[in-house]
Amino acid sequence: MIDNTAVAAPQEDFLYMQIADRISNQIRQLVLKTGEKLPSVRALSSEQGISLSTAYKAYVQLEINGLIEARPKSGYYVRYSPTRSFSSPKAEELEKESQKLSLDDMVAMVYRNFRGEGLIKLSIAGPSITLLPRAKLNKSMMESLRESKNSCIGYENIQGNDTLRKHIARQSFSWGGTVLPEDVITTQGCMEALVFCLRAVTKPGDTVAIESPGYFGIFNTIQSLGLKILEVPTDPAEGINLNFLAKAVKENQVNACLFVPTFSNPLGHCMTNENKKALVELLGKNDVPLIEDDIYGEMYFGKTRPRTCKSYDKRGMVMLCSSISKSLAPGYRVGWCIPGKFKQQVLNIKLMHSLSSAAPTHSAIGHFFETGRYDLHMRNLRKALHTQCLRYTQAVAEYFPADIKVSRPQGGYVLWIELNRKIDAFELYKKALAYRIAISPGHIFSTDCRFTNFIRISFGIPYDDEIDRSLRTLGELMQRF
Hints:
Layout: H1 4-28, H2 41-48, H3 52-64, E1 68-71, E2 75-78, H4 91-98, H5 103-114, E3 120-121, H6 134-147, H7 162-171, E4 185-187, H8 189-201, E5 207-212, H9 216-224, E6 228-235, E7 239-240, H10 242-250, E8 256-259, H11 273-285, E9 290-293, E10 318-323, E11 335-338, H12 343-353, H13 359-370, H14 373-399, E12 405-406, E13 414-418, H15 425-433, E14 437-438, E15 440-441, E16 454-458, H16 465-480
Parallel strand pairs: 3-14, 5-6, 5-8, 8-9, 9-10
Antiparallel strand pairs: 1-2, 4-11, 6-7, 10-11, 12-13, 13-16, 15-16
Helix pairs in contact: 1-3, 2-3, 6-13, 7-13, 8-12, 14-16
């Protein structure tokens, strides 16, 4: 006689593991998200056609694995978050992780973790949402919609919102410019402005000079347009190496330049007025357009706003680009360019690319300028950033190894830190993620991963106990190398 119970137990064990694995996959793939309630044991039993015992054992297994939690008199809930999981990786994940990643893979990995939940995001070169005037922005949005004849549902002027362009022109006075509203073209953020300007002055196969180290987002943008990159050595204190650039220009290696002369990313340097003027004169004599990314120019710690290269431009060869993405409202996508003699080319490209800018957000920011709210906000933001920069720098000096070197920015959002040569910045980046800390490894700030023992840290988040613990942990991880 066959004992059926001896056979049933293994089958039941196999079945509950199958159910647990299927739920586990849904949780890890975020089909089921942290905090969501799961079906009751009875409901799971009915849905899957399994016994109550099998359903219960599946939930117990998921609870042991740390993926769900039982709440008294309430049921089972998802507790897993990918950014907080410390479970051992599978064999295939370890093999993949051990392979040497390409620059594109590294950049993609860093980008993914920009949006990760539960991370201390020391990797984002921008302001914490807590520093931004949400209530006043909402008020400007509502007031601008009420004042608009069509509630901002119609197309804007191709050059952009009139009020916004008027105040961008007025703002130019602070950086030494004499700009009229008709000189300004609005865009969907600064990156779109940069792309329009690049397309206006280059053709596929041309070479664009950029800073090195430089912002990794620019690399893909330039290459996506079929352009080549020439990296110009840049010093954290002095800025762009003008001698190197002059030689390259003389040898006809450069068709256009795209630089961040004021509080560059990641170095944080600000070129002197003399060097900015010399740069404009050098390129002007050789008819090489300069695209000036001035997105960080308003985040200065001194008494006065640094001048721009555009302020020295007499021939219209400098194309200034900026936005409010780093100062006021990243999600509004409000940017602009002042393209000089290339205005018509940029307008033609905008007409083909996007026709007009988004009326509601651009109108709201124009209203925000008009009411004087922007000036008040920026005074508060600059004070906060300066204080945070000093606090972060002090903590880095206290917690990091004694042989590190750190930049001394006079504006912007970031610290550029040189580590001991034994420390691989990308390995440090991966180790830090296990502690829910996101930094930017130096590898991604050049086209050939040359800055392997450098990291970039943002001080855009107000300093608190959590930031202090994060910086202390980073220092301890460095010591382990």
